Amino acid sequence: MNRGYNSNDRLVRPPLFRETDVVLMCLGCGGILILLYVATACWYFSMRQIQEIAAYSLLTFGFCYLFLWHLLRQRRRTAEKWPPVQISPLRDRRNIEQAWSQDAVVLGYDAFGNPWLWPDRIRVMQGIVLGQTGSGKTTLLRNIITQDLSRRVGPSRESHKIPMVIFDGKGDLEFFHSLLPHIHRAGRLQDLRLLNPARPDISVLYNPFHCDDDNYMAQVNMVFGSFNLHDEFFAKHQLNYLADIV
User: Which residues sit opposite 11 in a β-bridge?
Assistant: First the structure.
């Protein structure tokens, strides 16, 4: 309720009917009086009947109010509940397939069990996942990758599986081993290539200096140009050494 406002250091109280709660109270009382008049003068209700109608109306209103209040509180309790709701594997698979039909993937679920979709038209833009250690960054990326392994994109006659290049800067193979069952299930083991200089026993071989044709200097310039050399003297000597190596 508005108590008043200051005008030139003088308290000025607003008019009575500018206060919303007073206006609503007056309208409610006026409506009740009109209903009483209509009930007694036009419909010839007795006071006992009017009391019964008023009691039933109050009970109905109170029940509806409590029911709506319970629904709102239940929704709030569900949103604040931890751990969140559990999604069955069958329901999760059904939601994932439905998301694929809409050219999207399922990132996760909200507190009410509704899937949160990530459309492909938004995925083409840059994205970043931030969070503290153990907050679920790797799990989120794994969920996206496992869905993309089995998806097919493009027109129905020219659909193809999604090619992926994954850079893991941790240096261990834990993430790679966690993806192997999903790669095998998707039937894409023959497409898998692992490049890990620290593990040459399981890594594919890549020689950036290898060149099949005689025009090896173009390869040398490409590799050495990535070093962004500024000293012309050292650059010429190193180019000559690199040409001898190739």
Answer: 6
| Residue 241: predicted pLDDT | 62
* Residue 176 and residue 93 in one domain: yes
Degrees, nearest 5: CA angle 85-96-91: 45
Would 202 be classed as within a structural domain?
Answer: no
The residue among 33, 56, 80 that closes a domain is: 80
Residue 18 lies inside a defined structural domain of this protein? yes
- Specify whether 68 is located in the same domain as 96: no
The total number of structural domains in the chain stands at 3
Q: Which residues of the chain have pLDDT under 50?
A: 1-2, 5
Instruction: With respect to residue 203, please indicate whether it lies within any of the assigned structural domains.
Output: no
- Residue 146 sits at the vertex; the CA angle it makes with 102 and 90, to the nearest 5 degrees, is 70
Q: Which residue has the tokens 């209903």?
A: 35
Sequence-distant (6+) residues with CB within 8 A of 149 are: 161, 162, 164, 182, 183, 185, 186, 188
CA distance 246 to 236: 15
The 10s digit of each residue's pLDDT in 53-103 is: 888 888 898 899 899 888 888 777 776 776 667 888 999 999 999 999 999
CA 199 to chain CA centroid, nearest Å: 36
In a domain, 209, yes or no: no
Q: Which domain holds residue 51?
A: 5-80
